[in-house]
Design a protein that fits this description.
CATH topology of one domain: Serine Threonine Protein Phosphatase 5, Tetratricopeptide repeat
Strand content: under 5%
Number of strands: 0
Number of helices: 11
Structural class: mainly alpha
Radius of gyration: 31 Å
Order of helices and strands: HHHHHHHHHHH
Shape: flat
Helix content: over 70%
CATH class of one domain: Mainly Alpha
Length: 230
């Protein structure tokens, strides 16, 4: 029993000696490389300070952008599109918000509004870059942005791009309310491309998966029309 205790004691002492040796080595390393170590520490401190400082700055900018955007949204809802787009002299319009607060959440949303306004005004090519710059995880508004991009390309008779963006709208968080609309649009784009089998797939998807949607009758009608061609 005594021997076991001694071994245990030796193990503890041995571990303590190893630990002390490692600490001595660490201290010596810091002493020998203190310039490098402190330089690295300083860089890390600057990075952290910059990160938190930038986030604080963004929060402040986002609040300012939201205050400015309130009036622009009001004009948009009143269908005063030029005032919503360009401002009224007292408040920014959506374009000003994109230019001045583009890195904020409000600035991101302003991109969607600008693209939507250009679509309403028939300026389809102008709408594209703003809608492309918009990014959101929201299942309604992001899919809507993809659909608007599809509409913009359809109006410009670029049916390949139109079909591509409608497909993105379809696949982005599918739901029973909006996905059938995007499937119908995708089908029409594929018809323009004379890819009738692909078009039929879109209509069939509505019939199979969204039988209660408002688009069901059109989907059946368009599917039957394509079947008569084959």
């Amino acid at each position: 029993m005594a021997k076991k205790g001694k071994k245990h004691e030796d193990g503890v002492l041995e571990s303590a000696e190893v630990l002390a040796e490692q600490l001595t080595k660490s201290e010596q390393f810091l002493e020998d490389n203190k310039v490098i170590v402190f330089s690295i520490a300083a860089v890390l401190a600057i990075i952290l300070a910059s990160y938190f400082g930038y986030n604080y700055y963004l929060d402040g900018q986002n609040s300012l952008a939201q205050d400015e955007m309130f009036q622009a949204v009001y004009y948009y809802e009143q269908d005063s599109l030029d005032l919503a787009l360009n401002g009224d002299g007292n408040y920014y319009g959506f374009i000003d918000i994109v230019e001045n607060y583009g890195s904020t959440n409000a600035g991101n949303l302003a991109n969607f509004y600008v693209g939507s306004i250009y679509m309403k005004k028939g300026s389809y090519a102008s709408a594209v870059p703003f809608l492309n710059d918009f990014n959101s995880n929201d299942y309604v508004i992001q899919a809507r942005a993809y659909s608007l991009l599809g509409d913009a390309y359809m109006q410009q008779e670029d049916y390949n791009e139109a079909a591509s963006y409608y497909a993105k709208a379809v696949s982005f968080k599918p739901n029973e309310y909006f996905t059938p609309v995007y499937l119908l649009k995708a089908g029409l784009a594929y018809e323009k491309l004379e890819d009738f089998s692909k078009a039929a797939e879109q209509y069939e998807a509505i019939v199979k998966n969204y039988a209660k949607s408002n688009e069901i009758d059109k989907a059946k009608k368009y599917r039957a029309r394509l079947q008569s061609k084959s």
